[in-house]
Amino acid sequence: AIARMSGNETLLSLLSHVFERIVLKRRTDGIYDSARGTAAHQEHLTLLAAIERRDAAGAVAVVRSHIQAGRHNVMTDLKQRQAIRELRLIDPIN
Question: How many domains does the chain have?
Answer without folding.
Answer: 1
